[in-house]
TrEMBL record:
Keywords (A to Z) from UniProt: Bacterial flagellum, Cell membrane, Cell projection, Chemotaxis, Cilium, Flagellar rotation, Flagellum, Membrane
Domain of life: Bacteria
Family matches, as Gene3D superfamilies: CheC-like, SpoA-like
Membrane topology: Peripheral membrane protein
Organism: Mesobacillus campisalis
The name this protein goes by in its record: Flagellar motor switch protein FliM
Amino acid sequence: MLVNLQSGHDGPLPASAGKRTGAGKGRKIKTYDFKNAMRFSQEQIRTLSRIHENCARLLTSYFSTQLRTFVQISVSEVVQYSYEEFIAKVEKSSILGVFKAPPLQGSMVMAIPPNIAYLMLDRLLGGQGRVSMLNSNLTDIETAVIQRVFTRALSSFQEAWSSVEKLSPELTELEVNPQFLTMVPPNETVIVVSLHSIIDDAAGTIHICLPHVALEEVLPKLSARHWLATQKKAMESHEAEAMEKKLKGTKLDVKAILGRSTIEISEFLQLKTGDVIRLDGNYHDPLTVLVDNKRKFLAQPGISKGRAAVQVTHVMEEGDDFE
């Protein structure tokens, strides 16, 4: 019941008193579930998407080489769910690799759908990648092979995250029944990265589940400003390394000048073994070392490993043209 506060006494107001002209027009109402609070901002989700796009490229390269067939992996979506919703998304008989990635806290999981997982196993064991039956009970050999697949996939995960945080991921267990995984409470918010995967004629979605508790410490680093600053720094470092590598491979003309002398052409033509040409310098004067005709060093002559050599004794402060 509406109460009339203006009249000074209790009582119902006229129906028109409870209405505001134009109020609520065009206003969109969105349902919000307090049990599944959204704990990641859109900016953080976009950054996570960029990180795992790089991870997808690395995985594509690795699996193409190992499986020797067509492989295409790309990020289809990065969404926050409750852990319970994530478990519901995982296909039955998927192979799940639970891993830790210090310094991040808690456990994370990578789920490979059955058709993709068993195709990988068949090809890695020498087959043609044709799987007619999916057996949820892995043999010891299959377990060892799939563990290697997950370990190498985690290396790609580590490299993709290196621009944000230096992680040390380690596979802790394999599971084929998602219902047995109790990493976090059912209502815990998780980020689910979905990687659409095509291998040969098979297609499926690899899921990477990252609980909020695991990412909590690095959330400030997932802002666009921090991401761009880190990328710029990494690019500058890469450019500096590339320039240094290129400079190290640059060839220079280096000469050590013993001295100078001027003779006539007729004398030059008559030179023979044993003749001596007097130079303009003293024998104990330092030699001048030229780098691309610029004076760079002073040196003394000598022998190194049976070959004529010079030892630099002084670095010229500024290279002058050698006359």
